[in-house]
Design goal:
Helices cover about 25% and strands about 20% of the residues. The protein contains eight helices and 17 strands. Bound molecules: aspartic acid.
Protein backbone atom coordinates (compact mmCIF):
# COMPACT_ATOMS: atom_id res chain seq x y z
CA UNK A 1 0.00 0.00 0.00
CA UNK A 2 1.34 3.47 -0.85
CA UNK A 3 2.57 5.52 2.07
CA UNK A 4 2.49 9.33 2.17
CA UNK A 5 4.51 11.05 4.84
CA UNK A 6 4.04 14.77 5.25
CA UNK A 7 6.47 15.71 8.01
CA UNK A 8 6.80 19.06 9.77
CA UNK A 9 7.43 19.91 13.44
CA UNK A 10 8.95 17.07 15.47
CA UNK A 11 6.79 17.65 18.57
CA UNK A 12 3.47 17.29 16.75
CA UNK A 13 1.34 14.15 17.17
CA UNK A 14 1.37 11.60 14.37
CA UNK A 15 -2.01 10.74 12.88
CA UNK A 16 -2.59 7.79 10.56
CA UNK A 17 -5.06 8.68 7.82
CA UNK A 18 -6.77 5.58 6.47
CA UNK A 19 -8.48 6.41 3.18
CA UNK A 20 -11.43 4.36 1.90
CA UNK A 21 -12.89 6.56 -0.87
CA UNK A 22 -16.25 8.35 -1.02
CA UNK A 23 -17.12 11.81 -2.26
CA UNK A 24 -14.20 13.38 -0.41
CA UNK A 25 -12.07 11.47 -2.91
CA UNK A 26 -14.54 12.16 -5.72
CA UNK A 27 -14.04 14.03 -8.95
CA UNK A 28 -16.42 15.30 -11.62
CA UNK A 29 -17.45 18.32 -13.68
CA UNK A 30 -15.74 21.51 -12.50
CA UNK A 31 -17.96 23.51 -10.14
CA UNK A 32 -20.78 20.92 -9.83
CA UNK A 33 -21.88 19.18 -6.63
CA UNK A 34 -23.58 16.28 -8.45
CA UNK A 35 -22.68 13.92 -11.31
CA UNK A 36 -19.25 12.88 -10.11
CA UNK A 37 -17.50 9.61 -9.37
CA UNK A 38 -16.64 8.88 -5.71
CA UNK A 39 -13.32 7.22 -4.85
CA UNK A 40 -11.08 8.73 -7.57
CA UNK A 41 -8.42 10.67 -5.65
CA UNK A 42 -5.63 8.97 -3.69
CA UNK A 43 -4.55 9.67 -0.14
CA UNK A 44 -1.53 11.84 -1.08
CA UNK A 45 -3.71 14.30 -3.01
CA UNK A 46 -6.40 14.30 -0.33
CA UNK A 47 -3.96 15.28 2.40
CA UNK A 48 -2.16 17.68 0.06
CA UNK A 49 -5.40 19.71 -0.29
CA UNK A 50 -5.59 20.62 3.41
CA UNK A 51 -3.93 23.99 4.08
CA UNK A 52 -2.46 24.41 7.56
CA UNK A 53 -2.27 20.74 8.44
CA UNK A 54 1.54 20.85 8.81
CA UNK A 55 1.04 22.88 11.99
CA UNK A 56 -1.41 20.35 13.48
CA UNK A 57 0.01 16.85 12.97
CA UNK A 58 2.43 14.59 11.16
CA UNK A 59 0.30 12.64 8.72
CA UNK A 60 0.92 9.06 7.68
CA UNK A 61 -1.42 8.07 4.88
CA UNK A 62 -2.61 4.59 3.99
CA UNK A 63 -5.04 3.69 1.22
CA UNK A 64 -7.31 0.91 2.55
CA UNK A 65 -9.57 0.95 -0.53
CA UNK A 66 -11.02 3.63 -2.83
CA UNK A 67 -14.73 2.96 -3.24
CA UNK A 68 -18.18 4.51 -3.14
CA UNK A 69 -19.20 3.74 0.44
CA UNK A 70 -22.29 1.87 -0.77
CA UNK A 71 -19.74 -0.78 -1.79
CA UNK A 72 -18.17 -1.00 1.67
CA UNK A 73 -18.44 -4.58 2.99
CA UNK A 74 -18.04 -6.39 6.28
CA UNK A 75 -14.61 -7.51 5.02
CA UNK A 76 -13.56 -3.84 4.72
CA UNK A 77 -14.76 -3.21 8.28
CA UNK A 78 -12.75 -6.11 9.67
CA UNK A 79 -9.62 -5.04 7.73
CA UNK A 80 -10.02 -1.45 8.92
CA UNK A 81 -10.45 -2.42 12.58
CA UNK A 82 -7.47 -4.80 12.45
CA UNK A 83 -5.29 -2.12 10.83
CA UNK A 84 -6.26 0.41 13.50
CA UNK A 85 -5.55 -2.09 16.28
CA UNK A 86 -2.13 -2.98 14.83
CA UNK A 87 -1.12 0.67 14.37
CA UNK A 88 -2.54 1.67 17.77
CA UNK A 89 -0.13 -0.71 19.45
CA UNK A 90 2.75 1.46 18.13
CA UNK A 91 3.99 4.29 20.31
CA UNK A 92 4.68 6.49 17.27
CA UNK A 93 0.98 6.71 16.22
CA UNK A 94 -1.23 9.00 18.32
CA UNK A 95 -4.59 8.86 16.56
CA UNK A 96 -6.53 7.96 13.43
CA UNK A 97 -8.62 9.60 10.76
CA UNK A 98 -10.68 7.41 8.44
CA UNK A 99 -11.84 9.15 5.26
CA UNK A 100 -15.07 7.53 4.08
CA UNK A 101 -18.11 8.05 1.88
CA UNK A 102 -21.01 9.58 3.76
CA UNK A 103 -23.68 7.06 2.68
CA UNK A 104 -22.58 4.31 5.06
CA UNK A 105 -20.25 6.30 7.33
CA UNK A 106 -22.67 5.90 10.25
CA UNK A 107 -22.51 2.10 9.95
CA UNK A 108 -18.71 1.97 9.72
CA UNK A 109 -18.42 4.37 12.66
CA UNK A 110 -20.63 2.10 14.80
CA UNK A 111 -18.75 -1.05 13.74
CA UNK A 112 -15.40 0.53 14.68
CA UNK A 113 -16.89 1.94 17.90
CA UNK A 114 -17.82 -1.63 18.87
CA UNK A 115 -14.60 -3.34 17.82
CA UNK A 116 -11.39 -1.30 17.96
CA UNK A 117 -9.28 -1.98 21.00
CA UNK A 118 -7.69 1.36 21.68
CA UNK A 119 -8.45 4.60 23.51
CA UNK A 120 -6.47 6.61 20.95
CA UNK A 121 -8.83 8.89 19.00
CA UNK A 122 -10.43 7.37 15.89
CA UNK A 123 -12.27 9.99 13.80
CA UNK A 124 -14.21 9.44 10.57
CA UNK A 125 -14.85 12.17 8.06
CA UNK A 126 -15.84 12.70 4.45
CA UNK A 127 -17.59 15.30 2.38
CA UNK A 128 -20.86 15.98 0.60
CA UNK A 129 -19.23 17.73 -2.36
CA UNK A 130 -16.47 16.29 -4.54
CA UNK A 131 -13.06 17.95 -4.69
CA UNK A 132 -14.01 19.51 -8.05
CA UNK A 133 -17.19 21.27 -6.76
CA UNK A 134 -17.43 24.96 -5.93
CA UNK A 135 -16.76 25.32 -2.17
CA UNK A 136 -15.78 21.68 -1.70
CA UNK A 137 -16.28 20.76 1.97
CA UNK A 138 -13.70 17.97 2.08
CA UNK A 139 -10.56 19.97 2.96
CA UNK A 140 -12.20 21.70 5.96
CA UNK A 141 -13.76 18.45 7.23
CA UNK A 142 -10.39 16.70 6.92
CA UNK A 143 -8.62 19.56 8.71
CA UNK A 144 -11.15 19.39 11.56
CA UNK A 145 -10.93 15.58 11.75
CA UNK A 146 -7.12 15.69 11.91
CA UNK A 147 -7.23 18.38 14.57
CA UNK A 148 -9.69 16.28 16.61
CA UNK A 149 -7.61 13.11 16.26
CA UNK A 150 -4.53 15.09 17.34
CA UNK A 151 -6.23 16.44 20.47
CA UNK A 152 -5.41 14.75 23.83
CA UNK A 153 -8.96 15.70 24.87
CA UNK A 154 -10.36 13.28 22.26
CA UNK A 155 -8.86 10.17 23.91
CA UNK A 156 -11.16 7.51 25.37
CA UNK A 157 -14.40 8.95 23.96
CA UNK A 158 -15.06 6.14 21.49
CA UNK A 159 -15.05 6.44 17.71
CA UNK A 160 -16.24 9.84 16.47
CA UNK A 161 -17.29 11.55 13.26
CA UNK A 162 -16.07 15.10 12.52
CA UNK A 163 -18.34 16.80 10.00
CA UNK A 164 -19.35 20.36 9.21
CA UNK A 165 -17.83 21.83 12.41
CA UNK A 166 -19.47 19.27 14.74
CA UNK A 167 -18.31 16.16 16.61
CA UNK A 168 -20.66 13.14 16.61
CA UNK A 169 -20.48 9.86 18.52
CA UNK A 170 -19.94 6.70 16.45
CA UNK A 171 -22.95 5.01 18.05
CA UNK A 172 -25.53 7.71 17.54
CA UNK A 173 -24.42 9.56 14.41
CA UNK A 174 -26.76 9.31 11.41
CA UNK A 175 -26.78 10.76 7.94
CA UNK A 176 -29.80 13.09 7.80
CA UNK A 177 -29.50 14.94 4.48
CA UNK A 178 -29.03 13.62 0.97
CA UNK A 179 -27.19 16.75 -0.23
CA UNK A 180 -26.61 19.44 2.40
CA UNK A 181 -23.08 19.85 3.74
CA UNK A 182 -24.48 19.73 7.30
CA UNK A 183 -25.43 16.12 6.62
CA UNK A 184 -25.04 14.41 10.02
CA UNK A 185 -26.86 14.48 13.34
CA UNK A 186 -27.41 12.39 16.46
CA UNK A 187 -31.13 13.23 16.22
CA UNK A 188 -32.52 13.13 19.79
CA UNK A 189 -29.04 13.56 21.28
CA UNK A 190 -27.68 16.52 19.28
CA UNK A 191 -23.92 16.09 18.99
CA UNK A 192 -20.90 15.54 21.25
CA UNK A 193 -19.47 18.97 20.61
CA UNK A 194 -18.11 21.51 18.17
CA UNK A 195 -14.91 22.12 16.23
CA UNK A 196 -13.80 25.69 15.71
CA UNK A 197 -10.47 26.46 14.03
CA UNK A 198 -9.34 22.94 14.84
CA UNK A 199 -10.13 23.22 18.54
CA UNK A 200 -12.62 20.64 19.94
CA UNK A 201 -15.23 21.73 22.49
CA UNK A 202 -16.97 18.72 24.11
CA UNK A 203 -20.39 18.89 25.76
CA UNK A 204 -22.02 15.40 25.56
CA UNK A 205 -21.12 11.73 25.36
CA UNK A 206 -22.99 8.43 25.08
CA UNK A 207 -23.33 6.28 28.21
CA UNK A 208 -23.15 3.09 26.09
CA UNK A 209 -20.06 0.84 26.10
CA UNK A 210 -17.51 1.19 23.29
CA UNK A 211 -13.99 0.26 22.08
CA UNK A 212 -12.04 -1.24 25.03
CA UNK A 213 -15.32 -1.85 26.91
CA UNK A 214 -16.89 -4.30 24.44
CA UNK A 215 -16.59 -8.05 23.92
CA UNK A 216 -15.91 -7.72 20.16
CA UNK A 217 -12.40 -7.92 18.72
CA UNK A 218 -11.78 -7.84 14.95
CA UNK A 219 -8.78 -10.17 15.30
CA UNK A 220 -11.23 -12.90 16.38
CA UNK A 221 -13.79 -12.27 13.61
CA UNK A 222 -13.25 -13.88 10.18
CA UNK A 223 -16.53 -12.77 8.63
CA UNK A 224 -19.88 -11.28 9.55
CA UNK A 225 -23.10 -13.32 9.26
CA UNK A 226 -25.76 -12.05 6.87
CA UNK A 227 -28.55 -9.99 8.42
CA UNK A 228 -31.42 -8.61 6.32
CA UNK A 229 -33.75 -5.72 7.11
CA UNK A 230 -37.43 -5.91 6.13
CA UNK A 231 -39.52 -2.73 6.02
CA UNK A 232 -43.18 -2.77 7.05
CA UNK A 233 -45.68 -0.61 5.14
CA UNK A 234 -49.47 -0.82 4.97
CA UNK A 235 -50.47 -4.08 3.22
CA UNK A 236 -46.81 -5.17 2.79
CA UNK A 237 -46.48 -8.92 2.16
CA UNK A 238 -44.90 -10.67 5.19
CA UNK A 239 -43.60 -13.34 2.81
CA UNK A 240 -40.50 -11.19 2.47
CA UNK A 241 -39.46 -12.51 5.90
CA UNK A 242 -39.66 -16.13 4.69
CA UNK A 243 -37.62 -15.18 1.64
CA UNK A 244 -34.84 -13.75 3.82
CA UNK A 245 -34.70 -16.78 6.08
CA UNK A 246 -34.93 -19.32 3.27
CA UNK A 247 -32.18 -17.59 1.30
CA UNK A 248 -29.73 -17.71 4.20
CA UNK A 249 -30.13 -14.68 6.48
CA UNK A 250 -28.97 -15.56 10.01
CA UNK A 251 -30.91 -12.69 11.59
CA UNK A 252 -33.65 -10.21 10.64
CA UNK A 253 -34.20 -6.55 11.45
CA UNK A 254 -37.90 -5.68 11.23
CA UNK A 255 -38.31 -1.99 10.47
CA UNK A 256 -41.72 -1.40 11.97
CA UNK A 257 -44.06 1.58 12.06
CA UNK A 258 -44.30 3.79 15.16
CA UNK A 259 -42.65 2.08 18.11
CA UNK A 260 -41.68 -0.90 15.95
CA UNK A 261 -45.19 -2.03 15.10
CA UNK A 262 -46.57 -4.14 12.25
CA UNK A 263 -49.83 -5.77 11.19
CA UNK A 264 -51.42 -8.96 12.51
CA UNK A 265 -50.32 -10.97 9.41
CA UNK A 266 -46.71 -9.85 10.05
CA UNK A 267 -47.10 -10.70 13.73
CA UNK A 268 -48.34 -14.21 12.83
CA UNK A 269 -45.47 -14.77 10.42
CA UNK A 270 -42.81 -13.43 12.78
CA UNK A 271 -44.06 -15.47 15.74
CA UNK A 272 -43.64 -18.60 13.59
CA UNK A 273 -39.86 -18.04 13.70
CA UNK A 274 -39.70 -18.09 17.52
CA UNK A 275 -37.13 -20.57 18.83
CA UNK A 276 -35.74 -21.40 15.38
CA UNK A 277 -32.36 -19.76 16.01
CA UNK A 278 -32.99 -16.76 13.71
CA UNK A 279 -33.00 -13.70 15.99
CA UNK A 280 -35.49 -11.01 14.98
CA UNK A 281 -34.87 -7.44 16.13
CA UNK A 282 -37.67 -4.87 16.21
CA UNK A 283 -36.69 -1.36 15.12
CA UNK A 284 -38.64 1.65 13.93
CA UNK A 285 -38.91 3.56 10.68
CA UNK A 286 -39.69 6.77 12.66
CA UNK A 287 -36.07 7.86 13.17
CA UNK A 288 -36.35 8.95 16.81
CA UNK A 289 -37.50 7.43 20.11
CA UNK A 290 -37.15 3.98 21.61
CA UNK A 291 -38.53 0.44 21.24
CA UNK A 292 -39.78 -0.98 24.53
CA UNK A 293 -41.40 -4.31 25.40
CA UNK A 294 -44.93 -4.75 24.07
CA UNK A 295 -46.99 -7.88 24.78
CA UNK A 296 -48.86 -7.59 21.47
CA UNK A 297 -45.78 -8.70 19.51
CA UNK A 298 -45.42 -12.47 19.76
CA UNK A 299 -42.27 -14.44 19.22
CA UNK A 300 -38.80 -14.46 20.62
CA UNK A 301 -38.04 -10.84 19.75
CA UNK A 302 -35.16 -8.51 20.54
CA UNK A 303 -35.94 -4.83 21.11
CA UNK A 304 -33.65 -2.66 19.02
CA UNK A 305 -33.50 0.04 21.70
CA UNK A 306 -33.05 3.43 19.97
CA UNK A 307 -30.83 2.10 17.18
CA UNK A 308 -31.88 2.86 13.60
CA UNK A 309 -32.20 -0.28 11.44
CA UNK A 310 -28.80 0.05 9.75
CA UNK A 311 -27.05 0.25 13.13
CA UNK A 312 -29.14 -2.57 14.60
CA UNK A 313 -27.90 -4.67 11.66
CA UNK A 314 -24.27 -3.87 12.54
CA UNK A 315 -24.78 -4.93 16.16
CA UNK A 316 -26.81 -8.04 15.29
CA UNK A 317 -24.10 -9.18 12.84
CA UNK A 318 -21.45 -8.78 15.54
CA UNK A 319 -23.70 -10.43 18.14
CA UNK A 320 -24.21 -13.43 15.86
CA UNK A 321 -20.43 -14.03 15.81
CA UNK A 322 -20.88 -14.88 19.53
CA UNK A 323 -24.37 -16.35 19.97
CA UNK A 324 -27.89 -16.68 18.58
CA UNK A 325 -29.44 -16.74 22.09
CA UNK A 326 -31.92 -13.85 22.09
CA UNK A 327 -31.57 -13.22 25.83
CA UNK A 328 -27.83 -12.63 25.39
CA UNK A 329 -28.42 -10.57 22.25
CA UNK A 330 -30.97 -8.42 24.09
CA UNK A 331 -28.31 -7.66 26.72
CA UNK A 332 -25.98 -6.49 23.93
CA UNK A 333 -28.70 -4.20 22.55
CA UNK A 334 -29.17 -2.79 26.05
CA UNK A 335 -25.49 -2.03 26.74
CA UNK A 336 -24.07 -1.14 23.31
N1 LIG B 1 -21.99 7.94 -2.54
C1 LIG B 1 -20.97 8.64 -1.79
C2 LIG B 1 -20.36 7.63 -0.83
O1 LIG B 1 -20.94 7.32 0.15
C3 LIG B 1 -21.56 9.77 -1.06
C4 LIG B 1 -20.62 10.56 -0.21
O2 LIG B 1 -19.50 10.18 0.10
O3 LIG B 1 -21.04 11.67 0.20
O4 LIG B 1 -19.28 7.15 -1.08
Amino acid sequence: MPNADVDSHAALPTIAVLATGGTIAGSGSQGRATNYRPGQIGIEDLVGCVPGIDAVAHVKGMQICNVNSDDITGAHWIALARTIDELAARTDIDGFVVTHGTDTMDETAYFLNLTVKTDKPVVLTGSMRPATATSADGPMNLFQALSLAASPDARGRGVMVAFSDAIFGGRDVRKVSTFQTDAFSENDFGCMGYLIDGQPYFFNGSTKLHTLGTEFNASEIDGLPRVDAVYFTVDADPGVIDYCVESGARGIIVVGAGSGGYSTPWNDRISAFAGRGIPIVRCSRVGAGLITHDDFYRGDLVRGCDLPPQKAAVLLRLALTKTSDTTLIQRMFDVY
